[in-house]
Amino acid sequence: MTDQPSGSRYLHVRHALTARPRVWLVTGAAGFIGSNLVEELLSLGQTVVGLDDFSTGKESNLGEALGRAGASSGSFRFIEGDIRNLASCHAACAGVDYVLHHAALASVPESIADPLTNSQVNVEGFLNVLVAARDARVSRVVYASSSAVYGDTITIPQVESVVGELLSPYAASKAANELYATTFERAYGLATVGLRYFNVFGKRQDPNGAYAAVIPRWIANLLGDVPCEIFGDGNTTRDFLYVADVVQANILSATADAARARGVFNVACGQETSLNELFQLIRQSLARLHPGARSATPRHAEARLGDIRRSVANIAKARDQLEFVPAYRPESGLNEALQWYVARAMPTGVHAAVER
């Protein structure tokens, strides 16, 4: 693994797209991952259509993404709409080359509390996107799946071909997405690629969002001298991936040869980190800014229903078929994102320089 901005194929793809721009639809464009995709595509001079209903996404995410893309960026058109509305999906897919689908409800606890809404958005909404993409004859749909589909598998690291019993309605919705995508490819010839994200973190991540949001939440707590809560004994593990590598995986998947970009792929760092280790890493990073963090200790709470005990990916398939090479370890990704996290956690008018 490197700590460079991107792998060699990704550098080549970036240059090729700059020379020959395409038209991209990003659903969930105002969300965490979606806005990072918008930013990167616009910085490469692409034409981007964004679709979002702002149920979980934020206008500020889009504003920041457009601002960071720069004055020489590509063109952007936004459609405010819900993927549960087929007409909105048809309007968004018109004239598009690639669809990057990230509109979803991504919380395991919320899916357990309200499985009907989770299914309506994550399953029926995804089906609308597939129908619209098929009708518009897009070249490929790349969609966000999840490591949650591995359920209670005892295979460590997780490999695409082995899954266990699903543990939440959210996991079931992502498994259903994979089935629908495969069916549309067989029945209609619609090219699809599913990306099983592990725990993504980085700028524009909502601290009140899904499980991976533990990072911004703990940073805010440590800066405010509030105890950080760990569910369970802290030996629960996750595979934390910096958002820039998710962006890389999406663009590689959309542009790869058809024979290689098929099915589902793990998108992760390939490194297992326990919550106890993560807490120590965050505490150490913040100590130089906020000395009080150095002596902070976490508070343990009961383990959450539906959470997977161990999660770490085998990324050989993505490496071999997509030439996906993670550019960041959890430590380097955290250092990259720390300034953004701290700036949002600090009270208004308070500024702090974070050592890189």
What attributes characterize this protein structure?
356 residues, alpha/beta, 7-stranded parallel sheet, two-stranded parallel ribbon, 13 strands, disordered C terminus
Write a compact overview of the structure shown.
By secondary structure, the chain is an alpha/beta fold.
What does this structure look like?
By secondary structure, the chain is an alpha/beta fold. It is built from twelve helices and 13 strands. The strands form four sheets. The chain has a seven-stranded parallel beta sheet, with helices on both faces. Strands 7-10 form a two-stranded parallel ribbon. The radius of gyration is 19 Å and the shape is globular. Residues 1-5 and 347-356 have low confidence and may be disordered.
Any chance you could write out the topology, listing elements then pairs?
Blueprint (H helix, E strand, L loop, with lengths): L7 H12 L3 E5 L4 H12 L3 E6 L6 H11 L6 E5 L5 H8 L4 E4 L6 H6 L1 H22 L3 E7 L22 H20 L3 E6 L1 E3 L12 H10 L5 E3 L5 E2 L1 E3 H13 L7 E5 L5 E2 H13 L11 E3 L14 H7 L7 H16 L11
Parallel strand pairs: 1-2, 1-4, 2-3, 4-5, 5-6, 6-11, 7-10, 8-13
Antiparallel strand pairs: 9-12
